[in-house]
């Protein structure tokens, strides 16, 4: 690690290009992607110091390296706490060491989908009947501050014979694939 330590607000005598206040530089750096941040760190010692000292910028960089996206403003955690939480989650996924496990009983229906932390199952109104509804379970997440599963269901969506479905909870979207209920017409040749 470099022994170079610059007093806040001072640029080196040969560094005439950096005359903006550090708060502005920090704001600019926090909007760069990881590749550009690495380039900035190589170009200027002040930029390197700002990036290395900022937990917010480190968090943004670690998210991008992991291929993740920030969950938005719902989190009450500081940037430092978010960075630490991200590093714990990455470690736990690397070694498949989870904080908790939850068992979910699957109904006798073969349709299911897992997307965005929501597990959904097709449901029938009677045993071995056609799928006419969907049950949802939002799985617990310490990151979201939700420690218990949240459940809801739509027993009958007003359609018969759901063959398959897809969903994206982040877009409030469910797509149903429905089997045709009328028989195929039979053509006879003369």
Care to describe what's here?
The strands form 2 sheets. A 4-stranded antiparallel sheet has the order 1-2-3-4, with no helix packed on it. The protein has 5 helices and 6 strands. It has 2 domains: 22-94, no CATH class; 112-178, no CATH class. With 190 residues, the protein is α+β, with helices and mostly antiparallel strands. The chain is elongated, with a radius of gyration of 26 Å. It is 29% helix and 19% strand. Mean pLDDT is 81; it is low at 1-6. Residues 14-60 form the F-box domain.
Summarize the structure.
This protein is of the alpha+beta class and 190 residues long. The chain contains five helices and six strands.
């Amino acid at each position: 690690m470099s022994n170079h330590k610059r007093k806040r607000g001072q640029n080196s005598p040969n560094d005439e290009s950096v005359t903006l206040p550090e708060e502005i530089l920090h704001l600019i750096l926090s909007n760069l992607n990881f590749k550009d941040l690495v380039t900035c760190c190589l170009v200027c010692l002040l930029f390197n110091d700002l990036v290395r000292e900022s937990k917010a910028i480190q968090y943004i960089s670690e998210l991008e390296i992991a291929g993740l996206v920030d969950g938005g403003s719902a989190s009450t955690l500081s940037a430092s706490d978010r960075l630490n939480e991200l590093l714990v989650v990455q470690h736990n996924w690397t070694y498949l060491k989870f904080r908790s496990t939850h068992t979910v009983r699957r109904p006798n229906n073969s349709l299911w989908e897992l997307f965005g932390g929501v597990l959904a199952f097709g449901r029938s109104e009677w045993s071995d009947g056609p799928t006419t509804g969907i049950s949802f379970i939002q799985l617990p997440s310490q990151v979201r501050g939700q420690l218990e599963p949240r459940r809801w269901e739509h027993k009958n969506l007003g359609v018969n014979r759901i063959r398959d479905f897809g969903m994206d909870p982040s877009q409030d979207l469910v797509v149903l694939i429905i089997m045709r209920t009328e028989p195929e017409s039979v053509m006879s040749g003369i």
